[in-house]
Amino acid sequence: MTFGIWDFSEIDHAYITNLMGFEPNIIYRLGERRIPNKGQPSKRNGWLWRPEVVDKTLLDSFELQLNSILGKFENKIAELKQIEKYCFFEIRCGLFLYSGNGKSTPIVHFDKRYNDFVREINVEFDFDIYV
User: Fold this and answer.
1) What is the reported pTM?
2) Which structural domain range is residue 26 located in?
3) Distance (Å, rounded) from C-alpha 74 to C-alpha 3?
4) Cα–Cα distance list, 110 to 37, 91, 103, 113 (Å)
């Protein structure tokens, strides 16, 4: 799961990093490859932050990852509002479902904390399910 700031051109990655007060995990620069000489050039600018995985043997729960993102950005609402006219915000999640592994289906729950956050700033939620 990631929190992304996308499609900005009037501000830059350094400005966002300075405003947020912490480094992103991933950046995309329009027209540049993330890894030199590999892959396609990026079609847009992006600044992404991803929570650290606590349990290295499997991915952390949806709730734990979402709460980690909220914990990082809830106190940055004023800063996000300063730049929202220059970009858009997105929480991106990929959910992988496996059959026959003895584990139950993952739970996806958006609680009051999440709802309060998205009421303050306009955040898109990109949710992909892989079977």
Assistant:
1) 0.86
2) 2-130
3) 12
4) 40, 12, 22, 8
